[in-house]
Design a protein that fits this description.
The complex is a heterodimer of chains A (141) and B (163).
Chain A: E1 4-10, E2 16-21, H1 30-50, E3 61-63, E4 68-73, E5 79-84, H2 91-106, H3 121-137
Helix pairs in contact in A: 2-3
Chain B: H1 9-15, H2 21-39, H3 42-68, H4 76-92, E1 96-99, E2 109-112, H5 134-146
Antiparallel strand pairs in B: 1-2
Helix pairs in contact in B: 1-4, 2-3, 3-5
Classes of the chains: A alpha+beta (141), B mainly alpha (163).
Chain lengths: 141, 163
């Protein structure tokens, strides 16, 4: 079963608001994660301009030798992307599900400030469950 | 796998947990009464209700997008239709219709068939000029701002309660 290496959530200005790594592959220190987040934000924006297809919403999948990067951008500009083993399935569904968890446990928390780093325990708990059950639950989605 | 299409407001409303409507009406009424007591000026209360609605709207819009699966609207007409048919249905459980379009298509009225906020409410004469449901226009303003629809400052929906 293919594995997820890490999950990033970036706000509409490109700042990293959430980072979680799963497993030792691709683990990075805080500065590097911030760099990756801003880099991805800019590349995503540039790709929308470069795309030969009209109405392009930006990069959805980046495939490399050692990893795949799946990205989901909501209409509000928040991006969720996951770095995983090449060939991992159901990542789009996982990202949509994480978006739903975000709208529930982060946005409905009145003490969460918009666009700020996410420090919501309920979100962490539910996210771990989702990523673990990922292999089983998503196959049935 | 083909991407899922947009879901109807009815379907989403049926699938979420619901609360007693009278509790909702009473809670909102308590908020408005408390604001009137604290602020005394009807205009101030209107502003506060709009601000509260704005804070709700900026958070609500992601929930709306996640559950309803709508794609980006092409023009303001479509936006208004989606708000009325899907948005109000999904969150308040009531249908709404869009009327009164102006010539340029930049201004319209969204009319709620049956507004749960104003059940049992009668505005006294001392509160003339109070936009009792101003929170709703704040919600729409906040939500539209997050998806980059520039809303004009005159987005004030006036709901006449008790009529």
């Amino acid at each position: 079963m293919a594995a997820i290496y890490s999950l990033y959530i970036i706000n509409k200005s490109g700042g990293l608001i959430f980072y979680k790594d799963y497993g030792s592959a691709g683990r990075m220190d805080t500065n590097d994660t911030l760099r990756v987040a801003s880099l991805w934000h800019s590349m995503h924006a540039i790709s929308q301009q470069l795309s030969p297809v009209l109405g392009c919403a930006g990069i959805e999948l980046l495939e490399a030798d050692n990893f795949d990067l799946h990205c989901f951008q909501s209409l509000t500009g928040t991006k969720f992307f996951v770095v995983c083993e090449p060939g991992t399935l159901h990542m789009e569904n996982l990202l949509k599900y994480i978006y739903e968890l975000y709208t529930d446990y982060v946005l409905k928390n009145p003490f969460y400030e918009m666009e700020m780093p996410i420090r919501c325990e309920l979100f962490d708990i539910n996210l771990s469950q989702a990523v673990q059950k990922d292999r089983v639950a998503l196959l049935g989605r | 796998m083909a991407p899922a299409g947009p879901r109807s407001g009815d379907a989403i409303f049926a699938s979420v947990e619901r609360v007693n409507a009278e509790l909702f009406t009473l809670t909102y009424g308590a908020i408005v009464r408390q604001l009137l007591t604290d602020l005394e000026e009807v205009d101030e209360v209107n502003k506060q209700l709009d601000q509260m609605g704005y804070n709700i709207g900026i958070r609500l819009v992601d929930e709306f997008l996640a559950k309803s699966n709508v794609s980006r609207c092409v023009d303001f007409k479509e936006t208004a239709e989606v708000i009325a048919k899907v948005g109000f249905k999904m969150f308040l459980g009531v249908g709404a219709s869009v009327t009164n379009w102006d010539a340029e298509g930049t201004c319209c009225s969204i009319v709620l068939e049956d507004n749960p906020l104003v059940d049992f409410v009668e505005l006294p004469d001392t509160c003339q000029g109070l936009y009792y449901c101003n929170v709703l226009s704040g919600v729409i303003r906040g939500a539209l701002e997050m998806v980059s629809v520039p809303s004009c400052a005159s987005l004030s929906l006036v709901f006449s309660s008790s009529s």
